[in-house]
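Re: beginner question about structure tokens

> Can someone show what the tokenized structure looks like for a real chain? I only ever see the sequence side.

Sure, here's an example I had lying around. Input first:
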Amino acid sequence: MTGGITRREFLKGTGAAITGVAVLDTGLCAAGTAATEAGTNEIAKSSGPATILLNVNGVQRSVAVEPQATLAEVLRGPLDLTGTKIGCDRGACSACTVWVDRVPVASCMMLAADVGEREVVTIEGLARGDTLHPVQSAFIAHDAVQCGFCTPGLVMSCAALVENHPDPSLEDIKAAISGHLCRCGTYPHVFAATLDAAKAMKA
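And the corresponding structure tokens:
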């Protein structure tokens, strides 16, 4: 591409920005804990596809990826885990939120090759067999799904909050989902569902 900038160059050149955007502010961790230091992953430096191992939902998966492929693209593409949504593809809407080592991350802003040995959990892996996570159950009970496009990302952030904060306040929940864009405006239902899920987990 002449006179332009490739996706790979953009991601590489904005590492500091990615560090700030990739980790959603749940109040549980410092920004940047989910970002890999620049230059540490040899696969990401290659010019063609390479086979990597990803620990996704407790299962080691072998997958061939292009160096510029994001985690979101690999989850939805070759791994066929389409519960993770891609909305803005620039870390602004948080529809693509997954956990990386139990930290909510905007997966469209992380290269798949940079995940390494860290554990990825998607919305498909949040339940325990046929038993839904309390946040998933509460979202259903409170009709917090609406069109459903933003729901997986919201559930992942709210689940991370209640698992690490046994008694979250309304303000805690608002902070945890501050990076999420819900076009249907179902935020009050999300707040109520998360508060109820926290109570259920304490009980």
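Each token stands for a local structural state, so reading them left to right follows the chain. The CA atoms of residues 166 and 198 lie 6 Å apart.
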